[in-house]
């Protein structure tokens, strides 16, 4: 009787090992491509703004009205938005409005299945008649606000219920911009 149970366990173990091997071989060289249109990225940003935050107790920065541009020639994502800055000093509050344009690359966190704009860099900042050295301080504060925003607001999240996306969650193979779409290739 014991010998019979032992054979059943060995057979079951071999069957599970074969099933795991077949599953691995099936998915090992498979790629899963996700195409995110520029308009969808635009909608995602619009849902998360406006956002106002205070920095160094003197600066209130508000980000709103986002614009997204996928730059096929450089493979970067450009994001522009309106920015409002209030500078509070003793007895006086000054407000400046304008625009900021940033660009960055895509970073993938496999544990969460989320994609972020990585290392966003200000390419252009216009705030009315604001001049140096105050403009440089405001630039630094705005850069900080953008880095914080893009570090917690994903560009895209893999759908947890999608078995193909869950299986492909392990490795980011490629990110490119093609025909006004962000094209993400994942695989095992």
Automatic annotation (TrEMBL):
Top-level taxon in the UniProt lineage: Bacteria
Gene3D superfamilies per the UniProt record, alphabetical: Uncharacterised protein PF07273, DUF1439 (3.15.10.40)
Keyword terms of this UniProt record: Membrane, Transmembrane, Transmembrane helix
Organism of provenance: Microbulbifer aggregans
Name used for this protein in its record: DUF1439 domain-containing protein
Keyword Membrane annotated: yes
Stretches that traverse the bilayer: 6-27
